[in-house]
Design brief:
The chain is an alpha/beta fold. It has 2 domains: 140 residues, Nucleotidyltransferase, domain 5 (2-Layer Sandwich); 166 residues, Nucleotidyltransferase, domain 5. Helices cover 42% and strands 18% of the residues. Strand 7 and strand 8 form a beta hairpin. Helix 8 packs parallel to helix 9. The longest helix is centred in the last third of the chain and has 27 residues. The structure holds 5'-O-[(R)-(carboxyoxy)(hydroxy)phosphoryl]adenosine (KG4) and zinc ion. 5'-O-[(R)-(carboxyoxy)(hydroxy)phosphoryl]adenosine binds next to helix 5 and helix 6.
């Protein structure tokens, strides 16, 4: 059983081949980072064009790497949302064409389910109730799973996503795009206690807000005579505040819902300081932390294929009417 998976929800074009339920034969990611770097963030129309330019070659390359012929593929999995509509449309159009041409099923996958189902590389099933913190450039969500296939949001950001704020602060400090990796690297040279920055919504247990932290960090930068002389300290203090916020809210939700398995995924979860702090914070608890490794944390098609092989039978599918949507609820 071979699944060909396609992910084009933002600025990474990715194709993967999954054998049976969990074996990743190939997972290729073509990043558009260099192009968007010039603009300091993702330009949606440019992202769509670049997906269209590369997707066919990437499929050919992926099949070759997996040593699987196109006619051997049994089903197509594709991200149908949430994401940038034009970018999603490229992946969905290619997926639909392949599905009709090969006369095989098409499984539309929710991008967030993809981030969660990367867990299957570390554990065959979850011990419920389980919680996922998905923290990326577009999301900061706490998702409660009481049983397989049940997802409910128990906390999200009221404004900016954590990764988005990493990107914006990096831009202000002239560090380039994406901001997360470069802030992490720069922060390792700084003092996380150098500047006191606020944790928002301390008393609203599972809800996040990062726009106040963004403003406070920008005010801090503006108040310094030579801010670029303090880049490492600013990065370290900012990163520490984001990490403290994520840990505070996530552990409160774990306690409230008596969580067994905790999954942490999405691009920001590739931050080693964050993951070390999480490991330390759960040490004295019964929570089992499932940390997704960086190459499966950031956007990739393997996670989409894994969600399809595990959840495919519960997605309602009408291939002819399938449309992309920028806001695709993951509450099945
Ligand atoms: O999951 P992802 O690849 O795409 C979205 O669905 O958004 O996440 C990308 C985000 C970017 O905002 C990037 O700055 C952030 O993840 N990111 C990080 C790190 N690596 C990527 N944030 C903090 N630390 C990192 N090491
Ligand atoms: Zn993502």
């Amino acid at each position: 059983m071979y699944t060909l998976a396609i992910e084009t929800s933002c600025d990474d074009t990715s194709i993967a081949i999954i054998k049976d339920k969990t074996i990743i034969l190939s997972n290729l990611v073509s990043s558009q980072q260099k192009t968007h770097e010039i603009y300091g963030g993702v330009v949606p129309e440019v992202a769509s064009r670049l997906h269209a330019e590369i997707i066919h070659n990437l499929i050919t390359k992926c099949l070759k790497e997996a040593s699987v012929a196109l006619k051997q593929i049994n089903q197509i999995a594709v991200t149908a949302g949430p994401g940038l509509e034009g970018a999603l449309l490229v992946g969905l159009s290619v997926a639909k064409s392949l599905s009709y041409a090969l006369n095989i099923p098409l499984i539309p996958v929710n991008h967030i389910h993809g981030h969660i189902y990367a867990f299957t590389q570390y554990k065959p099933t979850l011990s419920y109730p389980a919680l996922a913190l998905i923290v990326s450039g577009g999301h900061t969500d706490l998702i409660l799973m009481k049983k397989e296939g049940s997802f409910s949001n128990c906390g999200k950001t009221r404004d900016d996503a954590a990764g988005e704020v990493f990107d914006k602060i990096a831009r202000c400090l002239c560090l380039g795009y994406p901001g997360g990796p470069v802030i992490e690297k720069t922060a390792s040279l700084g003092n996380p206690k150098a500047f006191k920055l606020p944790i928002a919504l301390k008393h609203s247990p599972f809800e996040f807000s990062f726009s106040g932290l963004k403003t406070a960090t920008l005010d801090c930068i503006k108040s310094l005579e030579n801010p670029l002389d303090h880049t490492a300290d600013i990065c370290a203090s900012f990163q520490q505040t984001v990490n403290d916020t994520l840990i505070l809210k996530t552990l409160a939700a774990c306690k409230h819902y008596k969580i067994n398995d905790l999954i942490i995924g999405g691009g920001v979860a590739s931050n080693r300081t964050l993951m070390n702090a999480f490991r330390e914070a759960i040490k004295e608890t019964a929570i089992n932390l499932i940390h997704i490794e960086p190459k499966l944390c950031t956007d990739n098609a393997a996670m989409i294929g894994l969600a399809a092989t595990h959840l495919g039978n519960i997605y309602a599918i009408n291939r002819d009417e399938l449309r992309v949507t920028s806001t695709f609820s993951y509450e099945l």
